[in-house]
Specification:
With 331 residues, the protein is α/β, with parallel strands linked by helices. It folds into 3 domains: 61 residues, no CATH class; 176 residues, 3-Layer(aba) Sandwich (Rossmann fold), CATH 3.40.50; 76 residues, Helicase, Ruva Protein, domain 3 (Orthogonal Bundle). Helices cover 52% and strands 8% of the residues. The protein contains 14 helices and 6 strands. Strands 1-3-4-5-2-6 form a 6-stranded mixed β-sheet. The longest helix has 19 residues. It is globular and about 65 Å long. It starts with a helix and ends with a helix.
């Protein structure tokens, strides 16, 4: 049966004439019934919703764009921070494999009702692995933006405590939230939770937290997306990998992707004759985030100096400055 919050949200959206919100909450009710094992009722509810949307000329994608009923409350305030990204997949520069994987995830989520009605599950438990600045955090924002879902970032400073058993209890609260409010739940720096059991500096509490996470993610049957990201996949416990529906690998951009990113960000103000290929060849080793920062530095400098265009030399200097910073950090 629908929760009190869902019933209130249905009535409020109906009174306000907010059809999209009404149908989104109705789909949450249908999803909840499916989770309870009321498959026939869930299918009937989805069919009624689709019929009602068709009469109003609304696109079918609305059914998969659940809108949160409320922001985190109580203890969850210290565990989750919420945002509503507008990012889109087209804003990312990706290799063909990553682009294909993300497109597949988005398509499956948009057709989640149809997939669930046939006894199958759309991909929604994702592990993102790769160096810093390669697009993992941006991916969480893009998934939320493309699907019209809130992005809940799990705050590790609030989750991980020194008291025995408390971290696992807080982790359970997060997983209970995934069932109440559909969204993208993002565990950044996931190795803080998922490091291998048995490491030299491991303690009993670390093992208990990891075991709790393994159990909770395996038992989770919500319709939220659970996204974990790590810069250190080598220290993750091997038992984690099979709990995720997809593992996405992120790497540093090659010359082609650096050139594409520079052109997309700076092309409008670039002087004639700028060679994006030549600039990219001297920027290998930078991450997507560092290329973006270098581009922003060039634009800000031009704005401060009231210049209408930027030169290849301007861009080269900004890229070289970023490379020098990387070298200093390595030494």
């Amino acid at each position: 049966m629908a929760s009190a919050d869902q019933l209130k949200a249905l009535l409020k959206s109906h009174l306000e004439g907010d059809n999209e919100r009404f149908f989104s909450v109705a789909m949450q009710v249908a999803a909840h019934e499916a989770k309870l094992g009321h498959g026939r009722l869930a299918v009937e509810l989805r069919a009624l919703i689709d019929q009602a949307k068709a009469r109003r000329g609304m696109p079918p994608q609305v059914s998969d764009r659940a809108i949160p009923i409320s922001r985190p409350r109580g203890e969850l305030v210290g565990l989750l921070s919420v945002s509503y990204p507008k990012a889109r997949l087209g804003e990312m520069v990706l290799d063909d494999i990553l682009s294909s994987q993300l497109n597949r995830i988005i398509k499956e989520q948009r057709q989640a009702s149809q997939i669930l009605a046939h006894g199958l599950n759309p991909r929604r438990k994702l592990l993102l692995m790769g160096p810093p600045g390669t697009g993992k955090t941006m991916t969480a924002s893009v998934l939320a933006g493309e699907l019209g879902l809130p992005l809940f970032q799990v705050r590790l400073d609030g989750l991980i405590t020194k008291y025995m058993g408390e971290t696992a209890a807080k982790l359970r609260q997060v997983f209970e939230a995934t069932d109440r409010t559909r969204g993208v739940y993002f565990f950044d720096e996931f190795d803080a939770i998922g490091s291998q059991r048995g490491l030299v500096n491991d303690v009993g509490e670390v093992r208990r937290v990891l075991n709790s996470f393994l159990q909770m993610i395996e038992q989770d049957e919500s319709h939220s997306l659970i996204v974990a990201a790590t810069n250190h996949p080598e220290i993750l416990d091997h038992a984690l990998f099979r709990r995720f529906d997809d593992v996405l690998h992120y790497g540093l951009p090659d010359e082609r992707h650096i050139a594409a990113m520079l052109k997309s960000r700076l092309g409008r103000m670039a002087a004639k004759g700028v060679s994006w290929t030549r600039l990219a060849s001297g920027a290998v080793g930078l991450s997507y985030a560092e290329v973006a920062r270098a581009s922003d530095d060039v634009l800000k400098e031009a704005l401060i100096e009231d210049r209408k265009e930027i030169t290849e030399e301007d861009i080269l200097q900004a890229l070289q400055e970023r490379l020098r910073i990387i070298e200093r950090l390595k030494s």
